[in-house]
Amino acid sequence: MNIQENFCPKCGGPTKNDGICNKCLAESIKWIVAEPRVVCVFCPTCGSIKQGNTWSDTTLERDVLAEELAIGALNVHPDVQDLRLSGSSYEPSPNRTKCMIHAEGTLYGIPMKEDLAVLIAWKKEQCDRCSRLSGGYYEGVIQVRATDRTPDTHERGRVESIATSVEDNLIESGERLSFVSRIDNIKDGVDIVISSHHIGDLITKQITSELGGKTTRHPKLFGERDGKKIYRITYLVRLPRYRRGDVIEVGNRYYEVRSVESGTLKVFDLQEGIMNVIREDDSYRIVGNVRDAQYVTVSFIDGDMAGILDPDTFMPISIPALAWLHLAEGSEFRILRDRENDRIIPVG
Ligand SMILES: [Zn+2]
Ligand SMILES: [Zn+2]
Q1: Which one of the ligands is nearest to 131 CA?
Q2: Residue 115: CA atoms inside 13 Å, Cβ hemisphere, count?
Q3: Do 102 and 143 fall into the same domain?
Q4: Residues, Cβ < 5 Å to ion ligand 2
Q5: Which has the closest alpha carbon to 159: 115, 211, 118?
Q6: Which of 6, 84, 146, 269 keeps 20 to 30 A from 24, CA to CA?
Q7: 235-277, pLDDT tens digit by residue?
Q8: What is the pTM of this model?
């Protein structure tokens, strides 16, 4: 059976269709159209863009963004196949970008071509984050303090870099309104002003998991937004009394603190040379920290005694050659001085 050949009523050409041929059909359809003008609201401070009512960060260059917006302004007939687009742009004025889009595709088997122009109008508006930042908005303050002492330089440095890296991660993951507004390094410790409770929870959790200690939260009502009560929270982070490397005296024995975890201290017994776990208790006396230990050299071994030069007085003295130190003539090790008992403590 032969397929019936018809003639197109428009151009008179042969067609397998009942009505007009594919070529006339394709030509009668506006296969691709573009909105001639698109307004793009952006933040002049941070470059975020607003779509609908939502702000989002973008790392795209302006011309790339303009072409993306222009492509978003296209409306393509659903029967078009093999759509290919290419574009170029220029800036006729500082707040306008003109995008030229060249489009090719196939409609009912007929190749199609079209050049379209979209004008992007850039409009400046301060974004939600920048307006909070410049307005000094905050939802909490983290106060980092230490028990019976002030945080040391190492702890202060860690606190600041934890706060900064948590902020970086949140911004990376698209959480725009969580940021650190200010970090104040003060005499008693470190104060961190934060814009959301979420970032406060994350920062305090990481500080205590790294440096030990506890966090207590003290919320205070300060207003309402969209019918929701807003609280400002003061997070008090209390770093532990003992730090890694502290040498403590417990019942006339010396231990080096290796870690502090929820109520227990992992310690190194400086007499026996073994690890031990003891209860965290504020009553232990802190003798010093191994960071401040001094190097000495063994000048002789006599039975279970070792001779060294006292690094403060340069006088020869003898101290017990503890088995775990594995001392030999000429070997080096470190000592701390317990000034209260005038004792020398080898720390390895
Ligand atoms: Zn035709
Ligand atoms: Zn902004």
Answers
A1: 2
A2: 5
A3: no
A4: 43, 45-46, 48, 127, 130
A5: 211
A6: 84
A7: 999 999 998 899 999 988 999 999 887 778 999 999 999 999 9
A8: 0.66
